[in-house]
Each structure stands twice: as structure tokens, then as C-alpha cells.
């Protein structure tokens, strides 16, 4: 992980879109890739 040098890190993922789809459209996600 290159957290300090601007590389890919585990905090760069979209958690909001799958959550909104689940609540508003009853779409269940297989998971969130981090």
C-alpha cells in the first residue's frame, strides 16, 4: 500500500452508491471492492 506517497490505498472506494442502490432500489451488492 502506498498510502503516504499518493498511490492506491484501501480508503479509495465508493461505499455510498451501493448503499443508496440497496435502500432505494432493493439491489443487493455482492460486495464492495476496496
Overall description:
The protein has one domain (1-34). The longest helix has 10 residues, at 16-25. It has one helix and no strands. It has one helix at residues 16-25.
Record keyword descriptors for this entry:
34 residues; mainly alpha; 1 helix; 29% helix; elongated
Number of helices: 1
Q: Taking all residues together, what is the mean pLDDT?
A: 77
- Measured by DSSP, the beta-strand proportion falls in under 5%
| Tally of domains | 1
The H/E string reads H
Report the structural category: mainly alpha
Low-confidence stretches: none
Overall morphology: elongated
Radius of gyration in whole Å, from Cα? Answer: 13 Å
Major pleated sheet? none
Quaternary form: single chain
**Total strands:** 0
Distance N to C terminus: 12 Å
- Proportion in helices: 25-40%
Brief overview, please?
The chain has 34 residues and is mainly α. The chain has one helix spanning 16-25.
Topology of helices and strands:
Layout: H1 16-25
Amino acid at each position: 500500500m502506498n498510502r503516504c506517497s499518493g498511490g492506491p490505498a484501501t480508503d479509495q472506494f465508493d461505499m455510498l452508491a451501493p448503499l443508496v442502490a440497496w435502500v432505494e432500489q432493493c439491489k443487493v451488492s455482492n460486495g464492495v471492492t476496496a
